[in-house]
Amino acid sequence: MASHLVLKLRDDDPWIVAKKAFDIVAAYLQPDSSASATETAACLDALTPTKRQLCEGEESEQPGSFLLEFWETFVVIVRQVPHDHPSQKRLVELVKELDRLAATSAESVWAHLQRLDNVLADNWNVPSEQEDSFEPFKEWVNLNSFVSRLYGAGLIKWYRFAIWTIRDSLENSQVPAADLLESRVAAAAQWIENSASKLFKTLRDTEPSEGDRRAFKSPLFDEEKVLSLDRWAFWRSKFQELAELEVSQVVKTEAIRAAQVMDQVESI
User: Which PANTHER family does the entry mention (predicted)?
Assistant: First the structure.
């Protein structure tokens, strides 16, 4: 059996609804949990403004406010689930069930996973060499694992998170310190492992918008090449190059596997 997860809300004075959501999700994610994704999604849905039993004198919040609080709590949990733990898959199954609830009611707050992209954008902060512990490096990989799984499963279309992570990991001419390099390579590799086929098609077939051109450019790829097979080929070559350097075995393993998956996707 997979290891027990020690999860913390990381809020000394949480909103009571956020605390309830945390407890529901945390219990569901434990390896010995018998709760299904469908059951857990229903429990979370019961916390939404129009379905929750309000205390006397309490006014319900707007759906958007609820979703921002909920997804912030959810991402706090995601960061603590190791990228290779089976519960990463259970997280995706739960999001899939929340998304399905939107099809059952026109009043559902879960349609299109609203506000999740806002919360992810706020949390998309690459760790730096200034971190005082290794935790931010591990949590960065965990977060990328989750979001790349959502993207690979077709639950989200926000490829910008993939481009940002892989660009910052592989398009830097300076080799960072060991811990930072390991985290960045592992984070980039999550996107290849969990969504390579979809990402390849995006770079091959998508005409970048003006926003894409501004957001994704780098010293190596100008505005016309931000979404291109040239960039895909460069990423593959960087993974291959990393596998040949004097780096940790973790980096070598991640780089070799990512390069192999990219080769396989191209040959399909």
Answer: NUCLEAR PORE COMPLEX PROTEIN NUP85, NUCLEAR PORE COMPLEX PROTEIN NUP85-RELATED
